Amino acid sequence: MKRVWHTIRGYIAWSYDRGSIQYDVMVTLILLFVFLAPHWINFNDKPVGHSLSETGIVVYPDGPSGFVYEVDATTIKGGDDDALREQLQQAIEPVAGEAEITGYQAVRDARGRVRAYRVRVRR
């Protein structure tokens, strides 16, 4: 029994010399954990899908004088066309400055929910 505790203490303290059987066993157990644990343990570290910037707006160039602003749908309350244009204008104004919206399009996810709005702007 004393020998078993000595062996366990040696594993915990990592006191075995490199190249010994005990050292090889420790390294093998660590490698098994690293490569096999993700299959059995849920670490909840799935990658996040397409994320927008901190402001909720991503800007893309659209020709020589225009831009496309992708506005996160959570910043827009919705409504009719005029209300939606007004909300989109207010959302992009801090980023774009004074600009005219020439059109917008809803970007939907796989379930059909509006994820963002692509707003074409001319300065």
Number of domains: 2
**N-to-C span:** 82 Å
Q: Could you spell the SSE succession in H and E letters?
A: HHEEHEE
What profile does the largest beta sheet have? 4 strands, antiparallel
Shape: rod-shaped
* Mean of all residue-level pLDDT scores: 82
Describe the structure.
The protein is an alpha+beta fold. It folds into 2 domains: 2-40, no CATH class; 57-122. The protein has 3 helices and 4 strands; from the N terminus they run ααββαββ. The chain has helices at 2-13, 21-40, 81-96, and strands at residues 57-61, 66-72, 100-108, 114-122. It has a 4-stranded antiparallel beta sheet, covered by helices on one side. The radius of gyration is 28 Å and the shape is rod-shaped. It starts with a helix and ends with a strand. The relative contact order is 0.12. The model has no long low-confidence stretch (mean pLDDT 82).
List keywords for this structure.
single chain; 123 residues; alpha+beta
Write a brief caption for the model:
The protein has helices at residues 2-13, 21-40, 81-96, and strands at 57-61, 66-72, 100-108, 114-122.
Helix and strand topology:
Elements: H1 2-13, H2 21-40, E1 57-61, E2 66-72, H3 81-96, E3 100-108, E4 114-122
Antiparallel strand pairs: 1-2, 2-4, 3-4
